User: Fold this.
Amino acid sequence: MNTAGRKRIEHILTTILCTHAALAANVAVDETATVSHLPDRTVVTLTQSGTVTVTEGGSFEVLFVGGGGGGGGLVSSDTSATAGGGGAGGVIHLQSLDLAAGTYEVVIGAGGAVWDSDENAAKGKPTTAFGYTAYGGGPGGKALNMTSGGRDGASGGGNSSNYGTKGYIGKAVHSADGNLGHDGGDAAGTYSGGGGGGGAGTAANGNKGGDGYACSITGTEVYYAGGGGGYTDDTNGLGGGNGYYGGGGRMNRTGGNGVVILSFTTTTSFRELFNDGEGGGEDQGQRFPWRLHFAHIHRERQFLSSPARKS
Assistant:
């Protein structure tokens, strides 16, 4: 068989497997969830609170990320006073979590607001599901307010700087709860920016937010929950290391929202793939009679291998 023929057969088999993955999902979710089908796994991404119904119990890989802390507010246009970056939301990554059939509540933690007046609103909110809690990140310190400093959280917020006088550096305080997180950073000094927020992967380094946690649960490596920068004024909720969901807010920016991601195996044997359990023959009324499908693939292979098709 030539190369084109082999690729055609591979395409047919991959399409069949992916179609089966869509039909044999182990969970039921509402339209706000994103469902992705890989050749051997199904990935469910939950970015809004709701419920997940496990229709078939089994083992799941699960990633939990809390909301990132808000960046410190600038309060003033005085460039000698700079605010700290928010700490990243906590991360819990379970390679194997056994879940029984049933309905589970999922709460996605919101990112914190910019901390200019309301400290509670600036704290990242916790993400909870399946009995686990990924806590929110601490907000970064406000400029021109040395009594604020950064705040503690799953990752700590960076401190603020006012003419070289620095505030408190937020600490990571939920490691005992299984949360990955790190301390905030120390402001580099006058005119150099406040301290960066701690990330789930690394601590902050001066005004640079800590890196996020690298995870390939979706089939592609992504950094989650990076710390917010204490000087760079950029997009909401990204942070050091291109931290994705749960990133701490950069100076004068909001924190990123949390997320829950589930991944489970959907690999199935060919006999199971085309047989609904009623027997192996095409005369027994199966929805996907496996003999008919294999005959179709065999005919396709013969056609592609025929002398008229060879290059």
In short: Residues 3-23 form the longest helix (21 residues).
